[in-house]
Write a structure and sequence with these properties.
The protein has ten helices and eight strands. By secondary structure, it is an alpha/beta fold. The chain has two domains: 6-130 and 228-299, Alpha/Beta hydrolase fold, catalytic domain (Rossmann fold, 3-Layer(aba) Sandwich); 132-225, no CATH class. It has an eight-stranded mixed β-sheet, with helices on both faces. Helix 1 crosses helix 2 (103-114), helix 5 (166-175) packs across helix 6 (179-197) and helix 5 packs across helix 7 (214-223). The two termini are 30 Å apart.
C-alpha cells in the first residue's frame, strides 16, 4: 500500500486502484467515476469534507491507474459491481454512501440495486440509465442539432451498410485493432463527446499520436448495451426503497437530459431532484460542482 492508494487484485488478471482519502473514522463514501474509462480525477476530492468523510476512490477495470490499462477482458458492469463489493469487504466497511455522475451514476444505481443493504444513500449527478435510446439521443440527435460539424466528422466515414446502424458501426470502428480504422473515429468521437459535455466547449487542439483511453472502454460498454438488460435500472427501482437519494441535474445537459432523472425519481419516492439552471453536463461547471458537494454534505450529515 502506498501513501495515497494501492492496487487490489480482483481476479481475471485485473488489479484495480483504490485510494482511501479523508478521515479514517469518518462517514464511509465510495466515489464512482464516469466514462466508462475516465478514472478518478484529483479534483473529485473537492466534493467532500475531508474531516467528515472517509472517501474511497476506485479506478474501475481498465481505467485510471488500474492494471492492465485499457483492458476490456472480463470487464462488464457485473464485474465492476463485484469489484465494489470486494473493496468494501477488504476495507471492512459495513455500509457506505455511493457518489457518482453520468456513467458513475449508472454504476452506482446498478450496485445499489444489487446490494441495497450496503448503501446508506446515493448522491448522483447526470443520471444515465445505460440504454441505447439515451445514446442515440446524445450521439446522433443532439450532436446533429447542436454540433452539426462534429456530427458530420463522426458519421462521414461510415459506409452505406454501416449507416443502417451507425452507432454500432462507430463503436466497432473504435474497437478495430487496425489504427488505420480506429484512429480518426476515436478522435472524432472524443471531440463530439467533449463538445456535448460543456456549454462553452474549448476548440480542439491539434491531433497527436496519443489517443485518449476513454473511447475504447466506452465503445466496449456501449456496443454491449452497458451489459445491462433493457431498462433494468428503471424496472428495478423499487429495490431502492428506503435509500435516500439526491439527483443533481443540469437543465442544459445534452448527454444526460433531465427527463432521465425525472423518470427515475418517479419510481423512487425516497429521491429528490436538484436542478441546476444554465449548466451543462460537466461536473466542472461551478454550480453543478457546488450542488453535488451540497448533496454529499446533506447525505452525510
Amino acid at each position: 500500500m502506498t501513501s495515497d492508494g494501492f492496487h487490489l487484485d480482483v481476479g481475471d488478471g485485473h488489479a484495480i486502484w483504490v485510494a482511501p482519502w479523508g478521515n479514517p473514522d469518518g462517514v464511509p463514501v465510495v466515489f464512482l467515476h464516469g466514462g466508462p474509462g475516465s478514472g478518478c480525477a484529483p479534483s473529485a476530492r473537492g466534493l467532500f469534507d475531508a474531516a467528515r468523510c472517509r472517501v474511497i476512490f476506485i479506478d474501475q477495470r481498465g481505467a485510471g491507474r488500474s492494471l492492465p490499462a485499457r483492458a476490456r477482458h472480463a470487464n462488464t458492469t457485473q464485474h465492476l459491481i463485484e469489484d465494489i463489493e470486494r473493496v468494501r469487504q477488504y476495507l471492512k466497511i459495513e455500509r457506505w454512501l455511493v457518489v457518482g455522475g453520468s456513467w458513475g451514476a449508472t454504476l452506482g444505481l446498478a450496485y445499489a440495486q444489487a446490494h441495497p443493504s450496503r448503501v446508506t444513500g446515493l448522491g448522483l449527478r447526470a443520471v444515465f440509465l445505460g440504454t441505447r435510446a439515451e445514446l442515440v439521443w446524445a450521439l446522433d440527435t443532439a450532436l446533429a442539432a447542436f454540433h452539426p460539424a462534429l456530427h458530420q466528422a463522426l458519421y462521414a466515414p461510415l459506409t452505406e451498410d454501416e449507416r443502417r446502424a451507425p452507432l454500432t458501426a462507430i463503436w466497432q470502428r473504435i474497437l478495430d485493432p487496425d489504427p488505420a480504422v480506429h484512429t480518426a473515429t476515436v478522435r472524432a468521437f472524443y471531440r463530439a463527446e467533449r463538445a456535448l459535455s460543456e456549454l462553452h466547449p474549448a476548440q480542439p487542439g491539434p491531433d497527436t499520436d496519443h489517443l485518449p483511453a476513454s473511447p475504447f472502454l466506452e465503445a466496449h460498454y456501449f456496443l454491449n448495451d452497458c451489459f445491462l438488460p433493457p431498462d433494468s435500472l428503471l424496472q428495478s427501482a423499487a429495490s431502492l426503497a428506503g435509500i435516500p437519494g439526491i439527483l443533481v441535474q443540469a437543465r442544459l445537459d445534452l448527454l444526460c437530459p433531465p427527463v432521465m432523472s425525472h423518470r427515475l425519481a418517479a419510481l423512487w419516492p425516497d429521491s429528490e431532484i436538484r436542478m441546476v439552471e444554465a449548466a451543462g453536463h460537466s461536473v466542472g461547471h461551478e454550480q453543478v460542482f457546488a450542488a453535488l458537494r451540497q448533496a454529499v454534505s446533506d447525505l452525510t450529515a
